[in-house]
Write a structure and sequence with these properties.
The chain is built from no helices and 64 strands.
Length: about 725
């Protein structure tokens, strides 16, 4: 069989990690490229942007000629980063399981991990002072640890003065600590015990954060608004409020200005009179950013919706700039004659060559100013690209030659929601055809030998189109109405309806095998006998351990990708045989020779496919029903639930609140004997975030019912 050797790479730097062969749980990537998934960012020395993602730390360097940052290093980590803070020459990253890792940043772009500590308690925030670590732990108060010579955290003392302790800040030798129910406390830090309590600023409303401005504090409310407070003021300490500021989630301060960021707006205010000097409506992917200077002017940088980073000039935030070169997302990819071709949201079409070790080398860009590439396809060295911003399809000839490629023809599409192109590699009658897959229709364009393009009347369907397959003259269209429509494309490109079959759920991938149609429906592969396309008959249903979003048939192998990984099917027998599932999850892939390239839109992943005709050694199956404790627990973003089945069973896992009400169903499916895991992101069935508190997860399989408790903290 063909096994995976996982290779990822960085656009500017190569990071060695580990190599995995044939494992269903790869230990991690070897290299990464076109990384654009960023949750928070800090800027160091106005030159390096350090970002965190779900499993990596990304270092980017400011390039003046690009007026943007370019990725220099991608450092995979074995934890899920949630926050990052800068302390002198250290970057301290907090993980989802409440550990802290310190990295030396004096030699950027290189990052060196110096130490990792796990205090042993969940915490909302962390700050450092000399060799002491202060933590806020919600209802468990404030904690102080000191570091010994080995950088182990040793408990010193704690304070239970507050009720709900969250944000921390240190100004000079004073610790400011937010009690969300009462206000902001001050402690004088010394070498003994926790520190001496000074006083507190009472806030009569629930508070979500604060910013220190000398003796004045800006206080963010959980409802709309920002209050102004002072410790020198008698009574509540609240002296005024900011007007017309909406509901800021973060406030950043710089010389003479503050910047307020909420989900839809960014506002710049003058500190002398608190008047708004600049304001813009934005679409940001996150609010955890930083301020930096570029060409003598102050800028705000934030994670960008859709990937990468975005920067705002504080003199006028109305014109933000994309702040990460090739910020994505990756929308499509091709492998053609040893070349890797990519395109995406903020990415033009880039072409890379693969060396003997399959490491890509940037070769050239096709029309740098043309971005927003939604779909790609090819026939030999003819490349077809759909540019969503232009709503235009462009044919490029000699696309594999950097010196001679050119635009042969282009035309506009009727459907502005086209998400996929299929350039048919065979003729229908005497014409080639291009299929453009829209939201509720499929549009065909015929191409004569002389290059004349004719638009065919759109083919409309009931429901949104989720997948399209053309085999010979048969057109198969799957819709979100849980149906598959089969038509024959006639010589004049009119359609003859042959059949409509109902399926159990939506499918996002159809493929052809022999004289049968393979339909991936959730975790099932349903195979239809299409001997008579007017009357499709279910041949076989194969339960799979993963969901398939895209597949590619190469000789006697079918490669399929989904959120859980990449599956390899052997097609040498009468039925497909799933040989392995491994690698990273994703939504698109391309295969050529011994190379497989995959992507989930946030990075490009390269695999080497080695030849081995023997299937994997069967894995030992569980011998009992097991429901493990969720991890992490407590958690503040999401948690994983693992369980095992000794026999095929119908499994249902429900999240239940403390009142016994069902919050959400995570699993409700028939599953074969194996070990599984599922993930809860802290949302209910309507995908709204639930409140902090105790929850239960109930596992039912056959006659077995087990319930465990977990704690969500925010």
């Amino acid at each position: 069989m063909k096994l995976f050797r996982f290779i990822l790479f960085s656009l500017c730097g190569l990071i060695a990690i580990s190599t995995v062969y044939g494992s269903t749980e790869p230990e991690g990537p070897l290299y990464q490229m076109l990384w654009n998934d960023m949750n928070a960012v800090k800027v160091v020395d106005d030159h390096f942007a350090i970002s965190i993602s779900d499993n990596s730390i990304i270092v980017s360097e400011l390039v003046d000629s690009l007026q943007a940052f370019e990725i220099s290093r991608v450092v995979p980590v074995d934890y899920a980063p949630t926050r990052l803070k800068e302390y002198d020459t250290l970057l301290v990253v907090c993980s989802e399981d409440f550990s802290l890792s310190a990295y030396r940043i004096s030699s950027l772009p290189d990052l060196e991990c110096l130490w990792t500590v796990s205090p042993g308690i969940p915490f909302a925030d962390y700050v450092f002072h000399d060799r002491s670590l202060y933590l806020s732990s919600w209802y468990n108060g404030l904690w102080r640890f000191s570091f010994d010579a080995s950088f182990d955290a040793v408990f010193v003392d704690s304070s239970m003065v507050g009720i709900m302790m969250t944000q921390l800040a240190i100004e000079d030798d004073t610790l400011y600590a937010l009690d969300e129910y009462n206000g902001i406390m001050r402690y004088a830090l010394d070498g003994n015990g926790f520190g001496q309590f000074i006083d507190y600023l009472y806030v009569p409303k629930e508070t979500s954060g604060f910013v220190c401005l000398d003796t004045t504090l800006l206080i963010l409310l959980k409802t709309d608004g920002v209050l102004i407070g002072s410790f020198d003021h008698q009574g509540s300490g609240v002296t005024d409020s900011l007007v017309d500021v909406g509901h800021p989630r973060r406030i950043y301060k710089t010389s003479g200005k503050i910047v307020l960021v909420e989900n839809r707006y960014v506002r710049v205010m003058d500190l002398t009179n608190f008047e708004i000097t600049s304001m813009a409506e934005i679409e940001t992917g996150g609010v955890d950013g930083d301020l930096f200077q570029f060409k003598g002017r102050n800028h705000l940088i934030l994670p960008r919706k859709g990937g990468g980073l975005i920067a705002f000039d504080l003199l006028d935030v109305s014109y933000p700039r994309v702040a990460l070169h090739r910020s994505g997302p990756v929308n499509d990819l091709l492998l053609v004659d040893g070349k890797l071709i990519t395109g995406g949201g903020d990415n033009p079409i880039d072409v890379y060559t693969l060396d003997a070790d399959l490491l890509p080398q940037y070769n050239y860009t096709m029309y740098k100013g043309l971005k927003n590439v939604q779909a790609l396809d090819n026939n030999g060295d003819t490349l077809v690209a759909y540019y969503a911003g232009l709503n235009k399809v462009i044919f490029m000839l000699n696309a594999l030659d950097p010196d001679s490629f050119y635009v042969e023809r282009s035309f506009f599409l009727d459907d502005t929601l086209t998400g996929e192109l299929q350039l048919l590699d065979h003729k229908i009658d005497t014409l080639r055809a291009l299929i453009a897959v829209g939201e509720t229709s499929v549009q065909a364009y015929t191409i004569s030998d002389s290059g004349f393009v004719t638009q065919i009347e759109p083919w409309h369907f009931i429901g949104r189109v989720s997948s399209v397959l053309v085999h010979d003259t048969l057109l198969f269209v799957a819709t979100t109405k849980n149906q598959i429509w089969t038509h024959r494309i006639m010589p004049g490109f009119e359609l003859e309806r042959l059949s409509i079959v109902d399926i159990s759920a939506s499918t996002y991938e159809l493929t052809w095998f022999g004289d049968r149609l393979m339909v991936f429906v959730q975790n099932d592969l349903v195979i239809y006998d299409m001997t008579d396309p007017r009357s499709p008959q279910i041949d076989t249903v194969i339960n799979l351990p993963f969901t398939v979003l895209e597949s590619e048939l190469v000789d006697d192998r079918l490669y399929a990708i989904g959120p859980e990984g990449i599956g390899v099917f052997d097609l040498t027998s009468s039925l497909p045989v799933l040989m392995s599932v491994s690698g990273k999850g994703g939504s698109m892939l391309a295969v050529e020779g011994n190379v497989l390239v995959a992507s989930d839109g946030t990075s490009l992943d390269i695999y080497y496919l080695s030849d081995d005709d023997q299937p994997d050694t069967p894995r030992d199956l569980p011998d009992a029903f097991v429901l493990q404790q969720n991890y992490p627990n407590p958690f503040n973003a999401g948690t994983t639930i693992r369980y095992s089945l000794p026999t095929r069973s119908h499994v249902k896992i429900d999240i239940i609140n403390i009142l016994g009400q069902k919050v959400r169903t995570l699993v409700d499916a028939e599953q074969p004997a194996d070990s599984y895991e599922t993930y809860w992101d802290g949302t209910n069935s309507s995908r709204h975030t639930v409140a902090t508190g105790v929850y239960f997860y109930r596992f039912r399989a056959g006659d077995i019912s087990v319930t465990r408790k977990m704690l969500l903290l925010k």
